[in-house]
Amino acid sequence: MLKYLVMALLAERPRYGYELKRAFEDLLGGTWILNIGQIYVTLGKLEEDGLIEAEVVPQQLLPDRKVWALTEIGSKELARWTTDDAGQAIKIRDELYFKVIAQALSGGDIESLIWQQRDSLGRAMSELGRLRRTSEGATALLLDGAILRVEADMKWLDLCEARAKELRP
Amino acid sequence: MLKYLVMALLAERPRYGYELKRAFEDLLGGTWILNIGQIYVTLGKLEEDGLIEAEVVPQQLLPDRKVWALTEIGSKELARWTTDDAGQAIKIRDELYFKVIAQALSGGDIESLIWQQRDSLGRAMSELGRLRRTSEGATALLLDGAILRVEADMKWLDLCEARAKELRP
DNA sequence: CACCGCATGTAACGTGTTACATGATTCA
DNA sequence: TGAATCATGTAACACGTTACATGCGGTG
After folding, report:
1. Alpha helix (H) residue ranges in A14-167
2. Which pTM does this prediction carry?
3. pLDDT digits 0-9 by tens, B85-136
4. Does A32 touch chain B (CB under 8 A)?
5. Number of folded domains in chain A?
6. Could you tell me if A153 lies within 8 Å of chain B, comparing CB atoms?
7. A21 in Cβ contact with A9 (< 8 Å)
8. In this structure, is the CB of residue A41 within 7 Å of any atom belonging to strand D?
9. Is residue A124 assigned to a domain?
């Protein structure tokens, strides 16, 4: 996934590694902080696969830059991925869900866990709101998505509470 | 994550590997199919860490079974994980979101992608409904969560459509 | 005889995380 | 002098996926 976002950023315009890291984190509103090494590993793999290519740009004072751009193959691969079905295979792999289920299976106190996780989601929500206020464009859209998800999770916790009794062994 | 669900299933009652696979897939309503090898690798690691222990149960006709149970340490570790904040660090890592953003960044046709992904979500939703009808207990709860998520994603696509013009470069 | 179900496992790979290494310049 | 910024990279680890290996017994 990371690699496709990197490719998308390169599709927008050519960039060098260090610049990509900032663009990436900026796009995600700081919700995905990258280790800079990861960028270079990713770029290395993309180059190996012929999806991107670099032009070295020497600088006077600062270290040389490798400016990366999408190749034609890369451009096609990106288009293929974006138009691929996202909901294809249904995958339920979420920490919140699994924590509640785990509590139910292990016979712990479900109600108190629900209240605790509601609190946690509440804090996440206020943080998202804070981020959202200072964002725009694609970043704002991503944050709106995250907010909609948290709202859905809050509703889910309500459901869990209503059915807690049935879950107890 | 897989390992905690495995531990939760063992907290419910001791089980052997092959049985765990079925219990796991059943719990997830078939939305997470495991390669049987993965179960054994996971059990091996959990044993290494002292979180579970096995009792070998010989059988007359069929191969011996290794019946696994949570140790006291394992039980504590599971409790620690379930009561850990789920919303702690906000993570936006979703294919659907990234596909739309990638399309915007690379200058592709956002509207047609949105319609395509709406269609994809619609099919996912009908599949979820189908699964939901034959489920109960924890599995039904998980599927309801997935349904709430898909609904949130549908709303998000509406948002994307409304803002598609701002996203275009 | 070939395949399926039972039951256990190993090996290779893909993706993301963390820590560490290098070297120059600029700023407190 | 020590830390931060610019710029590139390597190595080790965690987790999940896929494919493959082994062996027995029952069924078509």
Report:
1. 17-27, 36-48, 72-82, 95-105, 110-133, 137-167
2. 0.94
3. 887 789 999 999 999 999 999 999 999 999 999 999 999 999 999 999 999 9
4. yes
5. 2
6. yes
7. no
8. yes
9. yes
